[in-house]
Amino acid sequence: MRPAAFLDRDGVINIDHGYLYRWEDFEFVPGAVDALRRLQAAGYALVIVTNQSGIARGYYDEAALQTLHDALRAHLAAQGVTLDAIEHCPHLPEGLVARYAIDCDCRKPAPGMILRSAQALGIDLGRSLMFGDKPSDIEAGQRAGVGRSVLLAKNANLAAAKGGQPAFASLADAVDALLHD
Ligand SMILES: [Mg+2]
Ligand SMILES: [Zn+2]
């Protein structure tokens, strides 16, 4: 079994503009593509786990998200990066679209997306990593049994002091540090 790098999307891979659903608006965080390539080269499966409550809120639909993710996959593939899976949670209990307005097991901090993809891909969770920019990402990683969950925060030192979690300013900084441990 191989380890995975589980990655939140918004704020980790792309700049979080809020309820993004068009490829034209997708803007990579500097250094993120190279960091993904390095994780892949180090033997990690690459799995995006992203809360997309914009679907439950009615801002965009599953088809629009699929189109965006197809474009993302194609863009990364052209740069030598293969995503092993993209898991999204479309739910929100107070959402406007009835079929998504449920209390699910996949909206982070719940661990459902991580557990499902780990099962499907044969992932060793204990040797895996989770990268996120919110405490709910870290909690999801911990609840899933991921070996190391890393908080990315603009003010990394402040985040570390507050939460007691190791924190880095970006995915690129975190990968620099972790792959050289
Ligand atoms: Mg995020
Ligand atoms: Zn869900």
Automatic annotation (TrEMBL):
Entry-linked InterPro entries: HAD-like_sf, HAD-SF_hydro_IIIA, HAD_sf, Heptose_bisP_phosphatase, Histidinol-phos
Location of the protein in the cell: Cytoplasm
Top EC class, one word: hydrolase
Pfam families per the UniProt record, alphabetical: Hydrolase
The keyword Metal-binding is annotated on this UniProt entry: yes
EC assignment: 3.1.3.-
Keyword line: Carbohydrate metabolism, Cytoplasm, Hydrolase, Metal-binding
Gene Ontology molecular functions: D-glycero-beta-D-manno-heptose 1,7-bisphosphate 7-phosphatase activity
Protein family membership: Belongs to the gmhB family.
UniProt name for this protein: D,D-heptose 1,7-bisphosphate phosphatase
Gene: gmhB
